[in-house]
Amino acid sequence: xxxxxxxxxxxxxxxxxxxxxxxxxxxxxxxxxxxxxxxxxxxxxxxxxxxxxxxxxxxxxxxxxxxxxxxxxxxxxxxxxxxxxxxxxxxxxxxxxxxxxxxxxxxxxxxxxxxxxxxxxxxxxxxxxxxxxxxxxxxxxxxxxxxxxxxxxxxxxxxxxxxxxxxxxxxxxxxxxxxxxxxxxxxxxxxxxxxxxxxxxxxxxxxxxxxxxxxxxxxxxxxxxxxxxxxxxxxxxxxxxxxxxxxxxxxxxxxxxxxxxxxxxxxxxxxxxxxxxxxxxxxxxxxxxxxxxxxxxxxxxxxxxxxxxxxxxxxxxxxxxxxxxxxxxxxxxxxxxxxxxxxxxxxxxxxxxxxxxxxxxxxxxxxxxxxxxxxxxxxxxxxxxxxxxxxxxxxxxxxxxxxxxxxxxxxxxxxxxxxxxxxxxxxxxxxxxxxxxxxxxxxxxxxxxxxxxxxxxxxxxxxxxxxxxxxxxxxxxxxxxxxxxxxxxxxxxxxxxxxxxxxxxxxxxxxx
Length: 512
Hints:
With 512 residues, the chain is α/β, with parallel strands linked by helices. The chain contains 17 helices and 23 strands. The strands form 6 sheets. It has a 7-stranded mixed β-sheet, with helices on both faces. Strands 10-9-8-11-12-22 form a 6-stranded mixed β-sheet, with helices on both faces. Strand 8, helix 6 and strand 9 (190-194) form a beta-alpha-beta unit.
């Protein structure tokens, strides 16, 4: 049965919230404005606070993907035929509806994805901001007149690609859903988006709100299903004009390879192993706080997490001691509690991966300076709680220094010189983010220029905004999915030539 069902201590509120948006409380794909049940394998949604299933549904499958693509294709034509100003008004209305329903959406995301309610309330507002920001770009996306050396009037048009396939992860389904949908439809495209099969609910709600705001029915279709089946069918579908993938580097490589078979471009937002560099002249109080936020926020389940902490040898001992003491005081517990700052890991598989990587780090010689698997009531609840964990004495060749953990685990390393710090920061195939803490302005800018990363912070960490381009270097992916750059990525330029001469010369081939 594709329904939300009652389950211990978590599902009652989800039922209430979901029913407010989806009649009958059915789970399935949102296709052409209706919930369409899947035909594939049975799947469950698991409550990460206790490890029990609270809902079940079926993998969408090829037939649902075909229906979603057909719906998006028709809706996109109607959407592109609207004036840019009219599209902007719809996007602004989507933002208003997200704000109006922010508390309900935040509670749904908290319960279904295990993310702290205090974070989700702010995140719902930021998703509204995404649609509002791109609403303003709708009527400002235009071409240029080019002074070609002939009698022609030559101008360009920015045209939508058509139907965009988007695949988003389980760590931040609401945020990544808004982050991808808003620029795609602002540029005039239709969307078929597949959130993780572990966390489909909030993305389905966003799709519903898009239609309620006045978007054509079927402009945004949401697939509830697995990546290996439903996602693969969407990526390989003939209607797909662009693929956007947010997830692991391995997954991104597979998606890019599949898209390349149809000569389809991609935007890839992939993993990271970002370096957070602390110099001895830094404001250490702020740096300790920033280093906590960098890795422990969201239980470390963030692609930009500052998972490598590079500390100058002269302040290393005192910094790690203060850091470990502070980490032990972070409110850690059930995500529905208003004071909780770190909730559970989203799923059992990831929980076990984190625990295994920490164990291997210790076996390779790293020192456990704090944290590890949670004990007490949280550890015995059956939930996937993992305490903030600090591994000190990490060497560059260790797995914990090289591979993405995607959990609340930081690898502490030391350096002596600025050159060594930059070299350590760049000793990774990833290039998503990084930061430096120093009061030396010239050094701050040198390090920012020297570290290969798509986003870099000076005396701060983890601030991103839809107005600024976001993406990675190297194994962290390519393309930018926010800011004006996203509008360009979601369109293609067309060059139009108009002959203006009364008796133009006959041209055979290139005329310049």
